[in-house]
Structures are given as structure tokens and as C-alpha cells.
Amino acid sequence: MTDLEDVANEHLTTSTDREPDGEPNTQQDAAALTPAPATGRKRPDRGLLIASLVIACGVALIVWGFFAAITGDEGVERPEQIESISPVENAVQVLQQEGVAVDLQFGYEAVLIIDGIELETTNIGGLEAEPGQQLEFPSTAIFDPGNSIISFTPDADAAITDWSEGRHEARIVYWKIEEGRANARSYNWSFEVV
User: Fold this and answer.
1) Whether 173 contacts 188, CB under 8 Å
2) What distance in Å separates the CA atoms of residue 126 and residue 117, rounded to the nearest whole number?
3) Which part of the chain is CATH 2.60.40.3780?
4) Which residues contact 171 (CB under 8 A, 6 or more apart)?
5) Which of 77, 89, 85 is nearest to 103 (CA)?
6) What DSSP character marks residue 44?
7) Which of 169, 61, 65 is nearest to 115 (CA)?
8) SS3 of 114, please?
9) What percentage of the chain's residues is helix, strand, coil (to nearest 5)?
């Protein structure tokens, strides 16, 4: 061996690696170089374990979000007698030519009040026409008793000729047909026209 190799070997062996007489312990050196026998289990990588936990939590939150989300009419508390409203409560992009419609449960009648104006209502159940004749509806709110729907579209001859830009307040006053308007209830909502 060369002098450099001897110096390197001396630095690699410590005082605990030497025999009591000062000579290197070759058995210990050989044991140190021999890999430990496998125990059959590897320790998991801590970084990989943390990343997996974060991903699992993210997936769980996404799934929870889908089931907890409130969409459409689910978040609105309206009376059970009102099945649907158009435009919906707090709509923000209603077009100026769009109409207002309220679908009620069967057996109810109603009137619309928009921006404080009670609209005259025409009940189309009372209109008569010859077979094949097309009906012309007046420029009022139209109530269809067969479907229990009341609707209104602004018109040049109506009480409201068009929707101005901005917020509009709407109210429906509804009652059971056999009870009459004396026992009416109401529901308010608003929408915004662009």
C-alpha cells in the first residue's frame, strides 16, 4: 500500500474500531460494510405520506362540496303553493323583453303587483272562442286556471310598457279559488333588469 492509502484507511477507522493493541478491527470493518438483513417492512417515505394525506383531504372536500352545494331553487324558501317563479328571486341579468310568470299549485288563483302597480288580470278560462279560432289576449296579466299560471309581459298597451334598467319589486297575491281573495297570502321577490 502507498502512504496515501494508509493515511486514508487510518482516518476511516476510529479508536473504537481498533483492537486493544492498536491494530484495526477487520471483523468490525467487514460487518460495517455488510448490509443489514431485510426485516420485510420498509418505512414509508414521510414526504410521500404527507402528500398522499393532503390529496386525500382535497378529494374529500371536493366530494363534500358537490353534496353540500345549493343550486337552483334549493336555496330559496318560498311557500309550497308557489311551484316556480320566473325571473327567479334576485336575478341580476333579466332582459327588458322578458316576462314575469308564477306557477302555482292547482286550485289557486292570483294577481301580480309589480313596482307597486296591481296589474289587471284576465282569466283565460272564461274566454270563449270558436273551434280553430285564435284568441287575442289583452295587454294584462294572464291567468291560466288549467295550469294555475299567471304571467305578464310588458306591452305598449299594458300598465307597464317596458322594464326600465335596474331593480324591480314583484309581489304575487294568491288564494285558494274556493276560499276567495279575502283569505289571500302574498310573496315578494325582486329582480334586476339590464
Assistant:
1) no
2) 24
3) 75-193
4) 112, 113, 114, 186, 187, 188, 189
5) 85
6) P
7) 169
8) strand
9) 30, 30, 45
CATH number for 75-193 (one of 2.40.40.20, 3.60.21.10, 3.30.428.10, 2.60.40.3780): it is 2.60.40.3780
Residue type, 109: E
Q: Per-residue confidence of the chain (194 residues) as pLDDT tens digits?
A: 555 565 555 555 554 555 555 555 555 555 556 666 666 778 878 888 899 999 999 999 998 888 777 655 555 688 899 999 999 988 888 888 889 999 999 999 999 999 999 999 988 877 777 777 777 777 899 999 889 999 999 988 888 888 899 999 999 999 998 999 999 999 999 999 98
| Single-letter residue type at 12 | L
Residue carrying C-alpha cell 362540496: 65
pLDDT of 32-89, one tens digit each?
A: 566 666 667 788 788 888 999 999 999 999 988 887 776 555 556 888 999 999 999 8
In this structure, are residues 25 and 32 in contact, taking their beta carbons and an 8 Å threshold? no
For residue 164, the one-letter residue type is S
Helix (H, G, I), strand (E, B) or coil at 23: coil
Q: CA–CA separation, 150 vs 175, rounded Å?
A: 13
